[in-house]
Amino acid sequence: INADSWGLHVRIAKLILCEVDGGSTDVDVDFHMLAKPGQNEAVMLNSGKINAALGQLMDNGEMAVNMAAAAREEKGWPSKIRDRVVEEFLFEEDDEEDEAIIESAQDKKSLELADESSSDNSEERKDENSGEYDGPFGMPGDTIYEPDDIYLGSGNGGVFYDYSETGVDNAPFKGELGPLLVDAATQRAIQRHPRVIAIGDVHGCLDELQMLLRRCDYQPGDLVVFLGDLVSKGPDSLSVVQMAREIGAIGVRGNHDFEVIRWHQAMKSGADPPVIGSEHFHIASGLSTADLKWMYSLPWYISSKELGALFVHAGFVSGIRLGKQNPRLMMNMRSILPDGTVTSKFFNNWPWARLWDGPQTVLFGHDADRGLQQYEHAIGLDTGCVYGGRLTACILPEKRLVSVSARREYFQYRRKHFD
Predict the structure, then answer these.
(1) CA-CA distance, 380 to 352, in Å (whole number)?
(2) What sections of 199-321 are H helices per DSSP?
């Protein structure tokens, strides 16, 4: 509030961090505003304006941003406390998200995997001596798979026939028919010019997803790319994931998808069910093994040089190369403030996509507040289907937009807007 101009000294008297139910932190700040010598009368006259200024700072989010900036500069705190305070001020949990946060060693492991996946070697397999492989054919903690494990009869759940010289005798028709049919199907798909169909946040809205694919004239050979948050809030999350896997779709990991994975990891490590009902827990409990493997395979982002496109759930920070982007921001960010602060909060005038200067076009979801967003190098496709809005797709390479209306409002939308 520019206290000096009001003739005030501001002193922080007390700051208390208190854990509350659900894993959040209450930050209780007691600060005193004292009149400078000779300024008592002026302060009294302006007390109404001072209170109004404080109220505005609370409402538009500037108080939280400034408190986070001050916490970053506080060198007397342990780094763990400092980072937690900054996180609580800048990142919000959706009102409708779980009341319970998983506190287990497996959580820490999942976050460590997230950090590792954003390094320069994010696309390389882990050291074979680590005993872990987090790719689509396994889960953290599982045995490393060898290349031949994709074949039927290998003992590790392979799904393909081996048509090599050594394995062809065990393939259908001794390998004389199978590849020919595959080649024929491939050629038919190529002749009809298969397309890429990027789809915004589905949130369990199965009926709308099926209507959208029909409106897009989806045909075998087309590739569907989901922009994250396939699950939670809507009527049938389990069927949405099953359908995505069965049509051969790929996708990126959204914040709700990530919570389902965290709950599954927690259950594998022996964590107790939540005391308060958690939708993410129930989804993780209900998914089949095949669908869980598909969920685990979702990366933070997908890059296509051929299409000149990037696919991500929430967004990117301009000026940082892809391998160094923060996975949490890629799943949660909505705004970048003028001072460079990246936040998951909705600041109406500061969408992150306004700063993205390409050259690749980013297709993203997550931001139902802003609805359909179209910038020179970014397209936002979360149009709030689960809240009674629309489900939207972008067909590449022509960048044609297609959408269908939600059948009804499945989840009441609540969010505080900042200017």
Answers:
(1) 11
(2) 206-215, 237-246, 255-268, 279-286, 289-296
